[in-house]
């Protein structure tokens, strides 16, 4: 079965510091990978996606992610975190089994930014 | 263009009752998916609708049912509510491109359901 693991439940970084959120996936075929962000009271907003090609993908708000097939990872990075980045971040894999195209999500990483 | 809108924002029900949640798709999107997000968890796929028919279902019992209307809006119905149904219910709409897995899902803000 497809699955996504986000090993870090909570991460705290100082404003201006770099950030890396980890994501590992288990999927039999070529994965379609996504990172979403959820702020309190908000729905999920797509940060970036990987379908194929260049393994380093750029997203919105200065985020990027690198797909590493050998490690089954799709880690999210940002060089310099802003206080407004505090939110919950979800990694997801697109899953076609059972019909339709569903997203299988990890359990999320809560990011806290210290000023 | 308008985004995905869900109503109501919050809802309180008692065990055994029935509830209907509503979702309006983003303009131009013909596919709607529903997810349940329990506290501290990632969203779990409930089902997806395309052209008014169910097109994929997650591991949820039959008391979770849905509808999609000709204007692509959708309803999620839950019968015989249980305490564990308390969660944030998210609706996502997407266009239907040639490569199914590349259809980006755009989420609404969700309906917070509390079952007492």
Main attributes?
heterodimer; A: 115 residues; mainly beta; six-stranded mixed sheet; four-stranded antiparallel sheet; 12 strands; 0% helix; 52% strand; B: 116 residues; seven-stranded mixed sheet; 49% strand; globular
List the helices and strands and how they pair.
The complex is a heterodimer of chains A (115) and B (116).
Chain A: E1 3-5, E2 10-14, E3 19-21, E4 24-26, E5 33-38, E6 44-50, E7 56-58, E8 64-68, E9 73-78, E10 87-95, E11 102-105, E12 109-114
Parallel strand pairs in A: 2-12
Antiparallel strand pairs in A: 1-4, 3-9, 5-6, 5-10, 7-8, 8-9, 10-11, 10-12
Chain B: E1 5-7, E2 10-13, E3 19-24, E4 31-37, E5 44-50, E6 53-57, E7 64-68, E8 74-78, E9 87-94, E10 106-107, E11 111-115
Parallel strand pairs in B: 2-11
Antiparallel strand pairs in B: 1-3, 3-8, 4-5, 4-9, 5-6, 7-8, 9-10, 9-11
Short précis:
The complex is a heterodimer of chains A (115) and B (116). Chain A is mainly β. In chain A, a hairpin with a 5-residue loop joins strand 5 and strand 6.
What does this structure look like?
The complex is a heterodimer of chains A (115) and B (116). Chain A has 115 residues and is mainly beta. In chain A, 0% of the residues lie in helices and 52% in strands. Chain A has strands at residues 3-5, 10-14, 19-21, 24-26, 33-38, 44-50, 56-58, 64-68, 73-78, 87-95, 102-105, 109-114. In chain A, strands 2, 5, 6, 10, 11 and 12 form a six-stranded mixed β-sheet that branches. The mean pLDDT of chain A is 93. Chain B has 116 residues and is mainly β. Chain B contains no helices and eleven strands. In chain B, a hairpin with a 5-residue loop joins strand 7 and strand 8 (74-78). Chain B starts with a strand and ends with a strand. The mean pLDDT of chain B is 92. The interface between A and B is medium-sized, with 27 and 31 residues.
């Amino acid at each position: 079965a497809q699955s996504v693991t986000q090993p870090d439940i909570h991460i705290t970084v100082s404003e201006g510091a770099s950030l890396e959120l980890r994501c590992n996936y288990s999927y039999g075929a070529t994965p379609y990978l996504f990172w979403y962000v959820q702020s309190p009271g908000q729905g999920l907003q797509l940060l970036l996606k990987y379908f194929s090609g260049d393994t380093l993908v750029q997203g919105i708000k200065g985020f990027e992610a690198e797909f590493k097939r050998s490690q089954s990872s799709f880690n999210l990075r940002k060089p310099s975190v802003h206080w407004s980045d505090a939110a919950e971040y979800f990694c997801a894999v697109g899953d076609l089994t059972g019909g339709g195209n569903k997203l299988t999500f990890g359990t999320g990483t809560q990011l806290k930014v210290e000023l | 263009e308008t985004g995905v809108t869900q109503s109501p924002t919050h809802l309180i029900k008692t065990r055994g009752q029935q509830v209907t949640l509503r979702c309006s798709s983003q303009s131009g999107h013909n596919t709607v998916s529903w997810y349940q997000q329990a506290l501290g968890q990632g969203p779990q796929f409930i089902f997806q609708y395309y052209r008014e028919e169910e097109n994929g279902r997650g591991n949820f019992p039959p008391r979770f049912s849905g509808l999609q209307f000709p204007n692509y809006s959708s309803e999620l119905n839950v019968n015989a509510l249980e305490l564990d149904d308390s969660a944030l219910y998210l609706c996502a709409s997407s266009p239907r491109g040639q490569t199914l897995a590349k259809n980006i899902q755009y989420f609404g803000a969700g309906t917070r359901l509390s079952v007492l």
